[in-house]
Sequence to fold (377 residues):
Amino acid sequence: MSGDGNLQRQLLEALRRGENSITVGGQQVDLSFWIDRHGVRAFREQGGGETTWSSPTTGPGSTRRNVVCLKWRGNEACPTRKRVAELLFQMGIRACDIFALIHPYGTREFDVSFARPEGLELFWSGYELAKDQPDWQGFFVQAITRQNEVKKVTVLTRNESLSCVDILTWLSRYGDVQGLPSKNLDEFGIWSGAWTFQIKLKHSGGSVSHIPSSAFLGRDRIMVFYRGQPKLCYKCGSPSHFSASCQVQRCALCGGEGHLAASCGQIRCNLCGELGHPFSRCPRSVANVARARTEVSREAPTAEASVGEGDRAVGSMKRKDGPSQQRRRERRQMERGQVEPRPGVMPAPSQENASPRAETLGDNEVNEELRRLDLPR
Fold:
């Protein structure tokens, strides 16, 4: 027994180290069978990380992770465990993605534990598309462990002048952006053209709504990456195929299904998602908001300019008809007998005492002249 235990530990250690063979009794033993059977090779091809051997999701003192419970509530006989596994495979889930499929004897429940969070994300995405199909209508799906709603999202652009605010506006269609974005810098401190956002994804039904892996903002394409992002068809959102083999007709203008852009009379903005205008005319784009503010500032004069124009207008009025000109005009009219003297208005001086320069002088000079002549002001 101790020898068998040592052999098992040696086998597990070899699988963890990524070795393809071990030495037993002086002979090389090929591990290809074990690698294929337990999904180790699939994990290596997907970029490494811990395998199902080294990262158990259950056990004494452990918390269950990446688990959903499928409860059969149909009127027909409960499906077999094999049938449930086939339904999962139809979603695009592979055997190496499933850590355990438990069907307690005599029950109508199936606990599905996924090896990684990506498997759980893929299940929920596939279930949203397949829940109305006859094979799934008898199942009630209960989330044993919740999905991680807050994601660290990386958005890669090829156009470095694409506004970060426009990217944030587009991301807000799929969740709430938390905190400020940051630029992704390499080891030399040079920007790679990518931004990092913290986003709390929205819920749709019993799962979160995922962000497309590729999209356009105007004519600029962006790529989106984050942990747990399912691989879906870009055109229809199905996890069973990619856009190259998609048979769904989707309009590139309005985003609707069943027709192409050549026969469509509407357009949908790929920034805000609303019908009626393209990205270049979107009122929420940074360029259009800045342009609108510039036009408003040009049309509305500043307070300082308004005051200056008013002062100039008042000054011109004073120059046209100042107090001294008005008094001289009244004196001339009184001399001719055209009007009666008003109270408080100085009567016209007599011809013998009047100064010949009085009519051509200003107010100060008139007062000075009257003081010199000793006449009432």
Remarks:
- The two ends are 134 Å apart (CA to CA).
- The CA atoms of residues 198 and 310 lie 53 Å apart.
- Confidence is low (pLDDT under 50) at residues 38-61, 313-320, 348-362, 373-377.
- DSSP finds ten helices and 13 strands in the chain.
